[in-house]
């Protein structure tokens, strides 16, 4: 019987050692999970493409507004005949509608394009850094707590801008 007790003890020890090794193995991989967060608003505003699209949009906005203002100014001229005024008014209304549509659609279209590019570059960045999860937050409203050590906003922003500029 003592031999049998010794064998049972050995089996129990082997099972416990295996369980401990498995536990340590899972603990090791769990600790190596790389989760980081970024400030989405800061990333979007600092991205070179955002700045470029904003400049292009402002230039187009100013050009359209200037044309509209000139047309309106010409409409106010007392030397314009009633027939000319009617034609100019139709032009003015059409251009004003186009201007308003531009003001509504341009920011939405460009924002969509910018976020698409940011997501693409972030995917590459995450693979390079071996990040398993990148959480975006707007001024940390969605993330209730995050250690500053895992905030990679500035690092990702540098990567995005270099990638966008072809560096």
From TrEMBL:
Q: Name one GO cellular component term.
A: cytosol
**GO BP term, pick one:** protein stabilization
Q: Which GO molecular function entries does the Swiss-Prot or TrEMBL record give? A: unfolded protein binding
Q: Name one Pfam family in it.
A: OmpH
Instruction: Kindly give the InterPro entries that the UniProt entry links to this protein.
Output: Chaperone_Skp (IPR005632), Skp_dom_sf (IPR024930)
Q: Which ranges does the record mark as transmembrane?
A: 12-29
**What family is this protein classified in?**
Belongs to the Skp family.
Q: Which protein are we looking at?
A: Periplasmic chaperone for outer membrane proteins Skp
Query: What organism is this sequence from?
Result: Flavobacterium fluviale
